[in-house]
Amino acid sequence: MMLQDKFGREIDYLRLAVIDRCNLRCTYCMPADGLNWLSKNELMSNEEMLRICRIFTEMGVSKIRITGGEPFLRKGFMPFLNELTQLNGLKNIAITTNGLNTLKNIQELKNLGIKSINLSLDSLDRERFFQITRRDELSKVIDTLDQLIENQFEVKINTVVMDGVNTVDIYPLVELTKNKPVSVRFIEEMPFNDGTHEISLKWNADHIIKHIKSAYPMLDKIENERNSTAMNFNIPGYQGNIGIIAAYTRNFCGSCNRLRLTSVGELRTCLYQSKGINLRDLMRQGNSDQEIKEFIELALIHKPKDGWEAEKQYFSMDETHQSMASIGG
């Protein structure tokens, strides 16, 4: 069985948020005081998450990315991962983390066969890191990065580019790829910051590419992976590569193969969609696996063509921007 939306796009990738909590307070994601965190009962249980993931794999999903909040803050997260790796049909489990609680779990992650880690890192400068995250924790993230590389994980660094904040970090982050086999992905800032500040459109994907090319004229575009959200480049002689993700200008929507599930079980067929079917509630109401599959198929019928179409629906409901921690990073 293979999931398809009404545009014929095959859906084989689920982003699962396991928690809303985070131990950083990044300015582009949430207010300084954090959010009103969900109670344990509001979150899906490990059993509910495993059931939903099994349903999705039976429907053709072969890759699941674990997000948050910060996934490693969830109690029982590693046992959950252990069970998740045993699902039939699941070929790829990836994790997006801020790196603060990851280090102690690296060996177990390796033993479970997890190979892909996305590490959020918006600055290599201690003061700017603190300015962005409101926490003085850069050294922990760098230690995690080094150990992930040492243990041969496929590491992607996610950097949100913010005008007047961290654009000076672009070149140092590019230089990381010279001697480290990492992919540094520069991401356009998105409006999911709980309404705490306006975003600048100056540093869009095209501007970021031009800025990098001005210092690295040998920047060479490489072939994108299937359904990739990034435009990928490398610099001759460098071990790693560079990606540019047009998260706000959204030039990759046409090949979208993703669904996302929030930590409360709400199925979003697009990042810019405001509401979705709550699969947690369907499970707690006693619906069978087959009935839940039918609800998922119904949701896919309404998957928008792209993020712009979804955003029109979003604003028509007169809702303020949510935090990325609530949506699932």
UniProtKB/TrEMBL annotation:
Radical SAM core domain location: 6-219
Pathway(s) of this molecule: Cofactor biosynthesis; molybdopterin biosynthesis
Catalytic activity: GTP + AH2 + S-adenosyl-L-methionine = (8S)-3',8-cyclo-7,8-dihydroguanosine 5'-triphosphate + 5'-deoxyadenosine + L-methionine + A + H(+)
Binding-site residues for S-adenosyl-L-methionine, renumbered to this chain: 28, 69, 120, 190
Designated gene of the protein: moaA
Similarity field: Belongs to the radical SAM superfamily. MoaA family.
Organism: Sphingobacterium daejeonense
The protein's name in its UniProt record: GTP 3',8-cyclase
Keywords: 4Fe-4S, GTP-binding, Iron, Iron-sulfur, Lyase, Metal-binding, Molybdenum cofactor biosynthesis, Nucleotide-binding, S-adenosyl-L-methionine
Transmembrane segments: none
